[in-house]
């Protein structure tokens, strides 16, 4: 089963994705984590990505599409995966749809975590103090929210046509949201 967790920055994709991946025994693929690891290791890809990442902008598809291809081709993701933070653009969605279709598979569920902008900002600001993530600055947070609305939110309509989008109220305790997801996907 392939499940996409979609939502604005700070909406809880990583938190809920981890719980869901453990419960279903599926790998979680997170492009943001892959980029953070590449930046940490100062690989050429990490160095290229950092200029965009730190500003809260999307890393270009020319970099991300190859990464997505490689991740979906991993043996662990043969029968399913939890996708956290991608697809994020129309080109990425096209690649994911096409790659899965070639294997006779498809995205089964899209969980759309719905959180107010005020709460998103509150969460990212508090994480900035705890973890110091380089894109949790006030400027980058504002850019990330705009970029989400412009480039990623349109994917909701793309997938809604297939009837696979479930809107999950993303405000409440982590446990309440986990329960709601369990109810939606039935396991
Ligand atoms: P990415 O790493 O994907 O970050 P994001 O989308 O900005 O989202 P976050 O990771 O900040 O939030 P989240 O939704 O995972 O929530 P979390 O569970 O952490 O991307 C970062 C950057 O990488 C992008 O800006 C871009 O530059 C680049 N990038 C990544 N993927 C890309 C792609 N496909 N294409 C192009 N560029 C790409 O929760 C947030 C906080 O809230 C945490 O502190 C958490 O503990 C807390 N929290 C969680 N749930 C709750 C709750 N119920 N109540 C209270 N607090 C909660
Ligand atoms: Mg995340």
List keywords for this structure.
alpha/beta; 5-stranded parallel β-sheet; globular; Rossmann fold; binds magnesium ion; binds BIS(adenosine)-5'-pentaphosphate; single chain
Short description:
This protein has 187 residues and is an alpha/beta fold.
What does this 3D model show about the protein?
Helices cover 58% and strands 14% of the residues. It is of the alpha/beta class. The protein has a 5-stranded parallel sheet. The N and C termini lie close together (12 Å). The mean pLDDT is 97. It binds BIS(adenosine)-5'-pentaphosphate and magnesium ion. Residues 7, 9-15, 31-32, 35, 52-53, 56-59, 64, 85-86, 88, 92, 123, 127, 135, 144, 173-174, 177 line the site of BIS(adenosine)-5'-pentaphosphate (AP5).
Distance between the termini: 12 Å
Order of helices and strands: EHEHHHEHEHHHEH
State the CATH architecture. Answer: 3-Layer(aba) Sandwich
Please report the total strand number as a whole number.
Answer: 5
Biggest sheet character: 5 strands, parallel
Our count of helices gives 9
For the record, the count of structural domains works out to 1
State the shape: globular
Unreliable sequence segments: none
Helix percentage: 55-70%
- Name of the CATH class: Alpha Beta
* Sheet/helix structural class: alpha/beta
**Hetero ligands:** BIS(adenosine)-5'-pentaphosphate, magnesium ion
Strand content: 5-15%
Strand order of the largest sheet: 2-3-1-4-5
CATH topology: Rossmann fold
User: CATH superfamily membership, which one?
Assistant: P-loop containing nucleotide triphosphate hydrolases
Mean pLDDT: 97
Query: Using only CA atoms, what is the Rg?
Result: 16 Å
């Amino acid at each position: 089963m392939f499940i996409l967790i979609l939502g604005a920055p700070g909406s809880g994709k990583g938190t809920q994705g981890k719980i869901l991946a453990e419960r279903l025994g599926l790998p979680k693929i997170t492009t943001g984590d892959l980029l953070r690891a590449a930046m940490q290791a100062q690989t050429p890809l990490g160095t290229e990505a950092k200029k965009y990442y730190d500003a809260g902008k999307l890393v270009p598809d020319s970099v991300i599409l190859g990464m997505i291809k490689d991740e979906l081709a991993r043996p662990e993701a043969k029968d399913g995966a939890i996708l956290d933070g991608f697809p994020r653009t129309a080109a990425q969605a096209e690649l994911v749809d096409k790659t899965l279709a070639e294997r006779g598979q498809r995205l089964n569920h899209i969980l759309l975590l719905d959180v107010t902008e005020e709460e998103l900002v509150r969460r990212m600001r508090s994480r900035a103090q705890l973890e110091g993530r380089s894109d949790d600055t006030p400027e980058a947070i504002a850019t990330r929210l705009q970029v989400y609305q412009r480039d990623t939110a349109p994917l909701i309509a793309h997938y809604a046509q297939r009837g696979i989008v479930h809107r999950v109220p993303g405000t409440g305790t982590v446990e309440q949201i986990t329960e709601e997801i369990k109810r939606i996907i039935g396991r």
